[in-house]
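Exercise: predict the fold of this chain.
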Amino acid sequence: PPDYFRYAGPAPRKEPWEGGAKRRPPTAFPPGWGGPPRLVRAFAEVFIRKAYHPSPASGMAVAEGPIAARGGRQGAGRHPLGTLAWADYNPRCCAAPSRRWALALDVLSLGVGGCTVVNKLYTTLDEAVADISDGATLLVGGFGPAGSPANLIQAVRRQGARELTVVANNCGLGDLIDTLVGNGQVRKFIGSFPIRPSATEVTNLERLYRAGQVEVEVVPQGTLAERVRAAGAGIAAFYTPTGAGTMVAEGKETRLFDGREYVLERALSGDFALIKAHRADTAGNLVYHAAARNFNPVFAAAGRVTIVEVEEVVPAGALDPELVVTPGIFVDRIVVAEKYVAWFGSRE
């Protein structure tokens, strides 16, 4: 019923087609969009009439809310409506009925006709990481060199953000995270393998940690993966038997379940997630290559802004849906970069 979708905000202005005006709402979608199923079309019409109403004068307003704050740029689809800005998502925006059709369809994620409101493709690595600020928390995918977003890490190094908290499985084991530490950009590292298992090879992280200049939090590997996964799933905390009765449990809440002690672990999210995937489509759907998948899908879901480096970008719809691991809804920025090859013994 229409009342089910009633907008609870301020009362909308009188529509231009009401009161006997000649102007009528659109009866068809813009050229090239095709026609959605009848039920979806009906929902879109109710959504437009109830959830969106014109703003004064220009019909534009300052963007508000979480959608406006998300990363990304204005898109450029085949239809002129593809140039809509984030401000258009404000309920007080969009006087033009045709623009409201576009917004409703985008919110419903119909993806008809190939129109893309948000362009997730970035030209350069430096552009993709430009807004990483001092004190940010970075979730960095990879297991050793496999699946490590080496090109993005180097871009962060050039960008120069400092006082970073880095969450990753390892540091200095074929990845380039240790170069950020050596550059004085990392304040705290959270991971399972913070140093090399070597008596002779000393990483920057180990050296600075022993000097008291960097904090290190060691997390059991399975717990690390689950803490990040929980953040992506909206779970605040969970109980695990891992680490019970050890220094891992110090300062944490514990409970007995069926006679066994469990430790309460909190979810672990990040301001930015740096991800490596093999292939992406323009909608942000990701395909990984073999073991390079590892932590990347979990970290992609837990970053407020997810940046992915890929070796190839294909048109939306070109990927086999059965092979997509990370849906595009979790991806904000895509940049194509050449494959970076590193080994456990390599250092920059």
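Check your answer against the key: The radius of gyration is 24 Å.
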